[in-house]
Amino acid sequence: MRNRSFLAVTCAALVAFAAAGCGGAASGxxxxxGGAASVAPADTAAFVAVDTDLGSSQWQxxxxxxxxxxxxxxxxxxxxxxxxxxxxLSWQNDVEPALGPELDVAVLPAASGxxxxxxxxTQPSDSAKLDSLxxxxxxxxxxxxxxxxxxxxxxxxxxLAAFSAATQHLADSSVYQEATGKLAGDALxxxxxxxxxxxxxxxxLGGTVPAGHGQLVWAAADVVAASGGLRVDGFTRSDGAGAxxxxxxxxVGEIPSGALAVADFQxxxxxxxxxxxxxxxxxxxxxxATALGGETAVYVSSGxxxxxxxxxxxxxxxxxxxxALHAALANVGSAAGSAPKTGGIDLGSLLGAIRLSHAxxxxxxxxxxxxxxxxxxxxxxxxxxxxxxxxxxxSAAGMPGKTTGFVYVDLADSxxxxxxxxxxxxxxxxxxDLSALRTLTAYGxxxxxxxxxxxxxxxxx
Length: 461
Fold this sequence. Notes:
The chain is α+β, with helices and mostly antiparallel strands. It folds into two domains: about 5-240, no CATH class; about 250-440, no CATH class. It has helices at about 5-20, 55-65, 70-85, 90-95, 125-135, 155-165, 175-180, 195-205, 280-290, 320-335, 345-355, 370-380, 390-395, 410-425, and strands spanning about 45-50, 100-110, 115-120, 145, 150-155, 190-195, 215-225, 230-240, 260-265, 295-300, 310-315, 355-360, 365-370, 405-410, 435-445, 450-460. Helix 1 (about 5-20) packs antiparallel against helix 3 (about 70-85), helix 9 (about 280-290) packs antiparallel against helix 10 (about 320-335) and helix 10 (about 320-335) runs antiparallel to helix 11 (about 345-355).
């Protein structure tokens, strides 16, 4: 444990905290997070607030979700055991008593050429326990300061000084207020990022921010546990970017029912707005993105030993799409084949052996790795729009009839298929009965004034 990074230990502790929180704490009211924004400097680049009140309604809801997993108790015990083994800390005696009802993380803009300055903020239940916990970090022990009723913890004395000297605070920032005003208010976690400060942070580290898609003003997201699953809602505001228009998917009425996974989007970007490709693979993928046109979907369906992958698009030049697809597959296979083989299937050889079948069906170009999948698309019968699992996922996630694109995964059927494929490839995935994980749905929503939203929902039942 000695001299281990304080931030690494904190991340591990949060994982163990999740395990403890799903162990059946007493019921509590819960409430809005982000109280330390009242002491964080106004120019904070990123801010994350975590509910650490194990009695809150959010932790009770999360516990209810975890208990739907048959191996619930064994999984949580393993998480706690792994944390204590690697950190050499006792969760019950060292960590839990040192935490308050909320743990916030603030990332401050770095000076030119410097690294990001991170500050943790808490209101410990037992200050002596927090001091004892920090003391057990050895030479890696961070510094602390008391700021407005919060204990600020950081490896950087300059960061703590910035907190103490701040006269303008994040909570009073109109940008922060606008961003977090979109969030639920009662969440397991809330996150905020300031676009201008994030660009400064990236520039200070010697990086560049891609242009051509507008300037990000702010981004915000939260994680909320509900009775039917785990939900992430996010929002971004950008200046100078054309807003994506929501559309009603037509392809859900054409894709066969029973798809394991579907990604549906509007394609056909102007190549001039894309960053230049720096590798042959990047160039091939960029050419493919440019060749696609109108509503496009990529979906995976069961197809014997290896699932079939099918692309549907409404391109004005089908041959250009086919050429771009073949080039992309060749480049992916070349990249995979250049890596040393460590066992299992040679991915480079596999991709090199893939043969694509295609057909023009009405206005659609359909390209698939399986002739049977192509025939299924052309045939009548039930379609994705009629699929019971898909309809249930839409309802559970609150997915509207019009989106700016969506992703859907039937976890109930795809996880067993993935585990079988991993076994074939000589790999081993985490075991256990995951049948309670039903679907994963993600979608974007359009909005006015440069604000765009997205939702990710993991259905658990």
